[in-house]
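User: structure tokens for M23 family metallopeptidase, please.
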Amino acid sequence: MSQRVSSRSSRTSRLRTRAAFMAAGLGATAVLGAGVAVAADTSAAAAPAATTASAVQAQAAAQARAAKAAQAAAAAKAKAKAVAAAKKAAAAAKKAAAAKKAVSWVDPVKKYALSAKFAQAGGMWQSTHSGQDFAVPSGTNVMATHGGTVVKAGGNGAGDGPAYGNAIVIKHGNGTYSQYAHLSRIDVSVGQVVKTGQHIARSGNTGNSSGPHLHFEIRKTPNYGSAIDPVAFLRAKGLKV
Ligand SMILES: [Zn+2]
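Assistant: Done. Predicted tokens:
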């Protein structure tokens, strides 16, 4: 439609040019006549152009409406996209939180008082204290401090000696093991895979123990003699021990 208009207007200007050219070639008297003729011709050409103009106006309005609708559609699409992105971000955050929880560590018992410390000297131990004691009543829920596989479980310190009483050793990743001793009851068996915080035993007073508590070690191997400071270890994992 707009193309037609421009072709018409260019035709009009062509006519004007031609009229001017003709007028230049004729006398001054002829100019008037030619001018009138041209004017008539021009107005004749302009009339449909005026009709076209209103049609163009209508078209423009329709185009504006269409543009507005398209804008609204685009806005709706953008909003939907934003909602989808927010949903995706929330799902990712949830997944990250779950992953963080999966790699995190927990205290082996919930309510406790720290008693004998790691490397503490005393008559109770062969050399120095190989773990951290958590003073808790017998029968307290003992949990896997981190996910892993049970590699030792049983009496006689699960092979590490009678001083430990009933004990469990769990293998975690990166050459890290956790050990739980003086247990009154063992609820896992060797080869069992446990999750972080999973119940594994009940605390007690078995073995060389001066009272109910959980003896807890972090070891570099499954065996006695490879322990490191468990409190420092757990604190490095973000626990408040
Ligand atoms: Zn101890």
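User: Anything notable?

Assistant: Residues 40 and 46 are 10 Å apart (CA to CA).
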